[in-house]
# Entry
Amino acid sequence: MRNVVLGSTLMLLSAACTAKLPPVEVTRFHVSETVAAGTITTSALGDTDGTTIEFRTYDAAVKRELARLGYAEGSNPAYSAEIGYSREARDRIAKSSPVTIGIGGGSFGRNVGVGLGTSFGIGGDKSRKTIISRLEVRLKRAADGAVVWEGRAQTEAPSNAPSAQPGLAADKLSRALFEGFPGESGKTILVP
# Structure
């Protein structure tokens, strides 16, 4: 009996460890199908605090993707990239797996059996958090300040998952946001 319970528990835990994380939801807008590469500078968007370590993490991730696309930092930049990010924690209800352990009973002839059963949930803390991470980038032409491309990306992960950490989230969001750059304008897509 103990081996059955132990085996079932291990099977449930291994399924939880290999669970696929949700994809990144990405929406982009631009004025043309091409945005010519050139030199670029980055800054904080709106009320984003550009002095924090977390901002520098997102800034570095965006710069890596822009460099991959041919946008290099340099003097007299042709573009500025404004970077904003946010993270919020939301309560989620963990799915519990009710497990029932019992010994069957019944009667056959003169023999009478007695049943015993118990039920308990596996799933731990029911009040775990989901971390929702967002990234927004606006690419502006330096000459006139016009926004030529902008995009938003969002993903979520359980608070105890590695991908909920700012560094991994910044990389995942940046890669998804700039995949297939400039992307189809006005369409929301899911990027694995």
